[in-house]
């Protein structure tokens, strides 16, 4: 990473960490679906995303872009503009496309091959979810490294380009990442290109103060990205950005990893269960068996304030 001491950062300098969904199962289904956005292949998706990344670098010469690939079994860094030549000076080997395009595509191909090799020995049923929790953790680790590099640094934000459905088994890890981003004042923007809304990303954008959209016409995805997510955080106060109509705050139970509307909560560690249990599987607290319909309370005497 380049030294921040020699750079003059202002309010309009951005560090955008993009989480790119590379789930091959989702893209195979999206390509063959007969919905309002036909022929949504991964290559068409990149035709919108890569020019958007290049436009961020062209808006300011010291803007930074980091791309993290989100696979089914793994996630990893794909591109870091701080360790690459400037976008204006970079060229591909054949000279037919900008250098950022060729480097990102090459790294993506290598990542997808490695990610598919990890799932050869596992039986995949339906459309598995991507490892969103892992990519969010990588993004936050990179941002924390930028914070600790010095007092001068660009304003970071995370952009999730997600198409795969939410994985209830990742609920705890995703929520921990969301609260960590909130504490670090890092907005999480979300752009969902799948058929359904993402409850995880709705909560992430709402809690951290980011922007959540689900484009209706994916053939104009580049316009959505540039008009909503290309602007820096300082300029957002002057724009009328999309506001969330409704946020799905439902949680996933710790026992069956399913999204529930009503359940039981451990009063010690706040673990969520869809059914009453004799003992908390997270912290080991024994619950009161005398009145299981009240709440999940530990089987111990609790002090009450004096009247």
TrEMBL record:
This is Uncharacterized protein. It comes from Persea americana.
């Amino acid at each position: 990473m380049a030294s921040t001491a020699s750079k003059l950062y202002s309010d309009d300098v951005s560090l955008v960490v993009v989480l790119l969904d590379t789930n091959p199962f989702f893209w195979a289904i999206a390509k063959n679906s007969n919905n309002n956005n036909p022929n949504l292949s991964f290559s068409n998706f990149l035709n919108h995303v890569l020019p958007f990344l290049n436009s961020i670098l062209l808006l300011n010469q010291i803007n930074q872009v980091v791309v993290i690939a989100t696979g089914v079994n793994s996630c990893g860094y794909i591109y870091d503009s701080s360790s690459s030549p400037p976008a204006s000076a970079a060229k591909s080997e054949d000279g037919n496309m900008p250098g950022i395009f060729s480097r990102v595509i090459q790294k993506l191909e290598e990542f997808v091959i490695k990610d598919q090799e990890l799932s050869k020995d596992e039986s995949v049923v339906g459309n598995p979810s991507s490892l969103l929790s892992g990519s969010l953790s990588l993004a936050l680790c990179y941002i924390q490294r930028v914070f600790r590099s010095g007092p001068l640094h660009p304003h970071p934000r995370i952009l999730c380009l997600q198409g795969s459905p939410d994985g209830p088994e990742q609920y705890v890890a995703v929520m921990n990442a969301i609260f960590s981003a909130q504490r670090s004042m890092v907005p999480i923007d979300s752009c969902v290109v799948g058929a359904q809304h993402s409850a995880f990303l709705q909560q992430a954008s709402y809690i951290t103060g980011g922007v959540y959209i689900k484009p209706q016409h994916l053939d104009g995805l580049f316009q959505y990205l540039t008009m909503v997510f290309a602007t820096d955080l300082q300029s957002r106060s002057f724009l009328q950005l999309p506001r969330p109509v409704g946020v799905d705050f439902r949680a996933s139970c710790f026992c069956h990893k399913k999204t529930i509307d009503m359940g039981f909560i451990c009063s010690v560690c706040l673990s969520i269960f869809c059914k009453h249990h004799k003992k908390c599987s997270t912290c080991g607290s024994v619950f009161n068996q005398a009145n299981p319909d009240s709440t999940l309370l530990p089987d111990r005497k609790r002090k009450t304030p004096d009247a």
